[in-house]
TrEMBL record:
<dbReference type="GO" id="GO:0005524">
    <property type="term" value="F:ATP binding"/>
</dbReference>
<protein>
    <submittedName>
        <fullName>AAA family ATPase</fullName>
    </submittedName>
</protein>
<keyword id="KW-0547">Nucleotide-binding</keyword>
<dbReference type="InterPro" id="IPR011990">
    <property type="entry name" value="TPR-like_helical_dom_sf"/>
</dbReference>
<dbReference type="GO" id="GO:0009190">
    <property type="term" value="P:cyclic nucleotide biosynthetic process"/>
</dbReference>
<dbReference type="GO" id="GO:0004016">
    <property type="term" value="F:adenylate cyclase activity"/>
</dbReference>
<dbReference type="Pfam" id="PF13191">
    <property type="entry name" value="AAA_16"/>
</dbReference>
<dbReference type="GO" id="GO:0035556">
    <property type="term" value="P:intracellular signal transduction"/>
</dbReference>
<dbReference type="InterPro" id="IPR001054">
    <property type="entry name" value="A/G_cyclase"/>
</dbReference>
<dbReference type="InterPro" id="IPR041664">
    <property type="entry name" value="AAA_16"/>
</dbReference>
<feature type="domain" description="Guanylate cyclase">
    <location>
        <begin position="39"/>
        <end position="164"/>
    </location>
</feature>
<dbReference type="Pfam" id="PF00211">
    <property type="entry name" value="Guanylate_cyc"/>
</dbReference>
<dbReference type="InterPro" id="IPR029787">
    <property type="entry name" value="Nucleotide_cyclase"/>
</dbReference>
<dbReference type="InterPro" id="IPR027417">
    <property type="entry name" value="P-loop_NTPase"/>
</dbReference>
<keyword id="KW-0067">ATP-binding</keyword>
<dbReference type="GO" id="GO:0005737">
    <property type="term" value="C:cytoplasm"/>
</dbReference>
Length: 1019
């Protein structure tokens, strides 16, 4: 630690520097730091170094201070906070520490004002440039001994700084994120993509051209893509107020959170009044003008003046009938020149009284001539000077005047009760209205029903949220088409939170107390639903305090009590609130909450959910040992129900968690064992290449720690994966080596798996006799005293696979009776375990046997059940082979179109999985289906390619099937073709004889004999 003044070393316990006597400044970061979505402004004086390079320090400060003061003033005028002064510029933030959904427009207006103020200094040497960007930051308070400074951190501030550096003199450059949020409120010019220092790719950049003339309502209306729906109750209340207006003034306040539809309802209602002959006086409070005195009242008076100008015969200029002082008051509000000394001599209070009386006189005169609606929107943004006058207008006791106001709950004026206003609390739409709104935007098609229901649940039927979620999906390309006819083109994992409404939700969260927010953060970490018992355990609050906070959160409709059989159930009003709450926490806070939740779940009395929940919280808490343990338990739970894709996810979490722990021998043994256990999940879900890499990685780790036993296990996994992903030559070579090593090592489980894998490798190589012998040894072990299986499976499941593979071998070799016995044994095991994986394997075995018996209809019935089951449970490893054999069954029934479709699907799925033998087999039979549909040339080409590939890669059995297929599809229309047929049949017979494929050999011999019997046709 060093002194800030003289940089001398200071001991940690010292309060004063021993060299210069300066007090020690100990900076601390407030633990209440949080993530915020804000807009950052960076501004500096162009070439400030050149301006002050030759000046004395005092002169340099004086030279730049006017510009800095102008910057500070502009930022503060629009609600920003100067987080840092940089000598020749400022860094400011909008939307923090109190969230504001208008942070981007406010920042843009502040930048425009900043440039204007500096230019108005009249110093040509002082020119500024500004950069703006909207994004997530970490915001926190840094306190020293003498002051506190609000700091922000994160990559977002760097982009704002780079935009500032790229901007030209007196120009404002903004990012695309800021432009999207402020578009409509501000005019922009697109500058294309620009290379910015520190960013690898050029980014879209926009230049601010000026403030827009559009009102906030017109901006919102221009963005809207839905029609007005429902609001039957609220409209009835409004019409009831109009019925009473002939007797006395009526005041109605539409109150609701941002996005609930206040403005939409009010404008629809007012339009109906105008159609019925009502006169409209309207004004909109603006967040940009909260600091401008009488800005709202000015808009009210301008509305009256403009109405008089449009209807000179019906409405006289109301100013002409005012007294002298009232005319001066109105001129002052309208920013007209006031030269009368009597006005300037009035005391401020008297001026305010005159402005209020003049305004009331004008509105009263208008209302007495014609039924009038005074519509003032967004009272939560009203300026202080206008507030008192609008209160007086709302309290006028005259007939034919309807005062219609809108406000958010946190901005409801204190005078509402005094004017006896009827408050209409706006609620979200009901489900039917929400779906009607979605039907208008997405289209009436039932294809998007699931998406529509998800959006309803995600947004809780808040109209703005529905619109913005749909817009986000369309902008991202997830929905394609035009509004009213959109199609979902890819699955939607997360609906997310559009940036346009993050500030809306964050502003709601800022209205609750710190204690209530802490409780909400715990609930957000638990998920969409929580219960009081868990909140009580984690928050450790007194019961009365807990109930008070929960009641406050329920009233705010953030975390609400639900009717449920589950005791003390609570849920978020909608998922967006939960996500924004969760995202607002910095990483350390999240980790602490998840650690507390994990501890509560692990305690005996709180145990309710399974290891998947514990894994989630352990991972978020970064408690890696527990994440490994619970991740592995969750993966095993998924494996037990054949949910392989889910199992892969948890195995990856467990493996990643282990790798984050310090290196040790025990860590490495756990890592190897985990990869061995995960092999079936990866292979079963079709991620065969990754299963192969698991074996290779485990083998490398076993070598590194000198563990021969685990190395053999890893090699066994690699050998099994080679059967699907590699060539038979590779698979047989490693399989034979692994069987030898496994026998020497002495672990019966891995030995049995190694023998099964080698039998499978022999089968794929077309070495059926060797396959049968090897599988027989494995079968004997698995049904005897050494019925062991390695981690990740059971002896019964491994026996089922062995029966399946052995049944294939006997079917190919013509031993159908033995194959039937094995099929029955496999089916019995599947019935016993009930595991979808086992049932799929048994179905595959039965379908293959039925094909061997020349009963394609029975085969199709069995294979269809297995195919559906494999797809339902994501057992992707079996999908291509089941589809292939199902296609063969269709082919042999003469259903050629169905066969071609199914075999084509099988081939594509096999390619995606990397299942080499399945690609070849489906190609062979796809060629046969193609031939039967008339395209002989295409069939011949496919078969020739399959035969060559099978020969090159060592798939002898498939080479024989391809040769026989060539003989079948080649027409004997020429001597050349007949010679090719004879050669293909003889090649088939030779390979089938050597391999032991008796049925195939017999079919080839029969066809050959038939051709030779017609020898008179050959030359």
């Amino acid at each position: 630690m060093h002194c800030f003044a003289c940089q001398s070393a200071i001991d940690p316990g010292d309060s004063w520097c021993s060299k210069c006597g300066a007090a020690v400044r100990r900076l601390r970061v407030d633990p209440d730091s949080e993530r915020r979505f804000v807009t950052i402004l960076r501004a500096d004086v162009v070439d400030s170094t050149g301006l002050v390079a030759e000046l004395e320090p005092e002169e340099a400060v004086s030279r730049l201070e006017p510009a800095l003061a102008a910057m500070r003033g502009a930022v503060r005028q629009f609600g920003g906070i100067v987080s840092k002064e940089l000598g020749d510029g400022v860094a400011a933030v909008f939307g923090a520490p109190i969230a504001d959904d208008n942070h981007a427009p406010l920042a843009c207006h502040a930048a425009i004002e900043l440039v204007r103020r500096v230019a108005s200094l009249g110093d040509p040497g002082l020119q500024v440039r500004v950069g703006l960007h909207s994004g997530h930051v970490v915001a926190y308070m840094v306190a020293s001994e003498f002051s506190k400074v609000y700091e922000i951190g994160g990559a977002a501030q760097h982009l704002a700084a780079r935009l500032e550096s790229a901007a030209e003199a007196n120009q404002i450059y903004v990012s695309e994120a800021c432009q999207k949020l402020a578009d409509g409120h501000v005019r922009f010019e697109a500058l294309g993509r620009k290379a910015l220092r520190g960013f690898s790719e050029p980014l879209p950049v926009y230049r601010v051209m000026g403030a827009s003339d559009l009102s906030s309502w017109r901006v919102r209306r221009a963005r809207s893509v839905s029609r007005f729906v429902d609001r039957t109750t609220e409209r009835a209340l409004l019409w009831r107020a109009t019925e009473r207006v002939s007797a006395s003034r009526q005041t109605v306040l539409l109150m609701g959170d941002a996005g609930i539809g206040k403005s939409r309802l009010a404008h629809e209602f007012v339009q109906g009044l105008r159609t019925d002959g009502w006169r409209l006086i309207d004004a909109e409070c603006s967040p940009n003008l909260q600091g401008a005195s009488f800005s709202t009242l000015k808009r009210v008076m301008l509305s009256v003046v403009e109405a008089a100008a449009r209807e000179p015969g019906r409405l006289a200029d109301p100013r002409k009938e005012l007294s002298g002082i009232h005319q001066l008051a109105l001129d002052a509000v309208l920013d007209l020149p006031v030269s009368d000394a009597s006005w300037s001599e009035l005391e401020p209070y008297a001026r305010g009284r005159a402005i209020s009386d003049a305004s009331c006189a004008v509105v009263e005169r208008v209302a007495r001539q014609q039924r009038t609606v005074l519509f003032i929107e967004d009272l939560h943004w009203i300026d202080r000077a206008s507030d008192a006058v609008i209160a007086a207008l709302a309290g006028l006791q005259i007939p034919n005047l309807l005062v219609l106001l809108t406000s958010r709950p946190d901005g409801m004026p204190v005078w509402i009760a005094r004017c006896h206003a009827e408050i209409v609390a706006m609620r979200p739409l009901d489900n039917d209205s929400g779906l009607a709104m979605l039907a208008e935007m997405l289209g009436p098609s039932t294809a998007n029903v699931d998406l529509k229901n998800r959006i309803i649940s995600h947004t809780a039927n808040v109209p703005l949220f529905i619109e913005e979620v749909c817009r986000s999906l369309k902008d991202s390309g997830t929905l394609l088409g035009q509004w009213g006819d959109l199609s979902l083109v890819r699955p939607v994992d997360e609906l997310g939170i559009p940036s346009s409404i993050q500030g809306v939700i964050a502003a709601r969260l800022d209205r609750i107390s710190r204690q209530e927010r802490s409780l909400l953060q715990i609930a957000a970490s638990l998920g969409p639903r929580a219960n009081q018992a868990m909140l009580r355990k984690v928050a450790a609050l007194p019961e009365d305090a807990l109930q008070n906070y929960l009641a406050a959160l329920d009233r705010a409709e953030l975390l609400v009590r639900i009717d449920s059989e589950l005791e003390d159930s609570l849920e978020f009003r909608h998922e967006m609130v939960r996500q924004v709450t969760y995202d607002s926490m910095v990483e350390k806070v999240r980790e602490g909450i998840h650690a507390a939740i994990l501890a509560a779940f692990e305690s005996e009395e709180m145990w309710s959910d399974g290891p998947d929940t514990l894994c989630y919280h352990a991972t978020r808490a970064k408690e890696w040992q527990k994440a490994f343990h619970h991740g592995r338990s969750a993966a095993r739970k998924c494996l037990a129900r054949s949910a392989y894709a889910d199992a892969v996810d948890y195995f990856e979490i467990a493996m990643g968690s282990l790798d984050k722990m310090p290196v040790s021998h025990s860590r490495e043994t756990d890592a190897i064992d985990l990869r061995m256990e995960a092999r079936l999940a990866f292979a079963g879900s079709g991620r065969v290449a990754e299963a192969l890499e698991l074996g290779k990685d485990a083998e490398r780790r076993a070598d590194a720690i000198g563990d021969i036993g685990r190395k053999v296990a890893a090699m066994t996994v690699r050998a099994g994966a080679q059967n699907f992903y590699g060539t038979p030559v590779e698979a047989v070579a490693i399989g034979e080596e692994v069987v030898r090593l496994a026998g020497e090592w002495g672990d019966p489980g891995w030995r049995n798996l190694a023998q099964y894998s080698l039998g499978q490798a022999y089968f794929l190589a077309g070495r059926y006799h060797e396959s049968e012998k090897t599988l027989a040894v494995a079968h004997a072990h698995l049904t005897g005293a050494e019925a062991g299986a390695p981690i990740g499976t059971t002896p019964r499941s491994l026996l089922l696979l062995c029966c399946m593979m052995k049944s294939f071998t006997h079917t190919v070799m013509g031993g159908l009776d033995v194959a039937e016995q094995l099929r029955q044994q496999a089916a019995a095991i599947a019935e016993e375990t009930g595991r979808p994986y086992d049932r799929v394997a048994a179905a595959y075995s039965g379908g293959w046997l039925m094909l061997g018996r020349n009963d394609p209809a029975a085969a199709a019935a069995i294979l269809e059940q297995g195919f559906v089951l494999a797809q339902k449970h994501g057992i992707r490893l079996f999908v291509p082979v089941l589809a292939c054999h199902l296609g063969i069954a269709y082919l042999e029934q003469g259903l050629f179109d169905r066969a071609r479709g199914m075999l084509g699907e099988a081939r594509e799925e096999a390619k995606a999985v990397g299942y080499t033998s399945a690609v070849l087999r489906s190609s062979i039979y796809l060629a046969l289906a193609t031939s039967r549909l008339g395209d002989v040339q295409a069939a011949q080409n496919m078969l020739r390619e399959a035969r060559n590939t099978a020969r090159q890669q060592g798939f002898a059995g498939l080479e024989a099937e391809a040769l026989f297929g060539e003989a079948v599809v080649t027409p004997p229309s020429s001597d050349e073709n007949k010679a090719a047929i004879l050669a293909a049949l003889r090649g088939t017979i030779a390979i089938a004889s050597e391999s032991g494929a008796l049925p195939l050999r017999q079919k080839a011999e029969a066809m050959l004999s038939e051709m030779l019997a017609r020898g008179d046709e050959l030359t």
